[in-house]
Amino acid sequence: MANILIVDDSRTSRKILRKILEEAGHTILGEAVNGEDGYLKYQELKPDVVTLDITMPKMDGLEALRLIKKYDEKAIAIMITAAGQKEKMILAIKSGAADFISKPYEGSDVLWVIDKCVNA
Length: 120
Ligand SMILES: [Mg+2]
Description:
Blueprint: E1 3-7, H1 11-23, E2 27-32, H2 35-45, E3 49-53, H3 61-71, E4 76-81, H4 86-94, E5 99-102, H5 107-118
Parallel strand pairs: 1-2, 1-3, 3-4, 4-5
Helix pairs in contact: 2-3
Bound molecules: magnesium ion.
């Protein structure tokens, strides 16, 4: 089981993700509402995994990913993407994202990707 930081500007998305992960036995160390907040909380909480929504105000998930990977090259970052974000997904993989989860997703998809990345 992993200690996870959720970074998403949508309160509803954070709530759904938290529920899926906690019900599977993962621990949510914290939540952040934009990329900047996520970067700061990553340093503070040192999670095993960070989920990064791509589209967020102030600082998006891609920028946060780059900062987090610069801070911790071993960081396991999983991008949460919406339809039509293929280019950003490619950029994220190039910037070191471990994987991505496309919205809308099933709980089982999320758990599978997390387990795969943690045990890689
Ligand atoms: Mg968003």
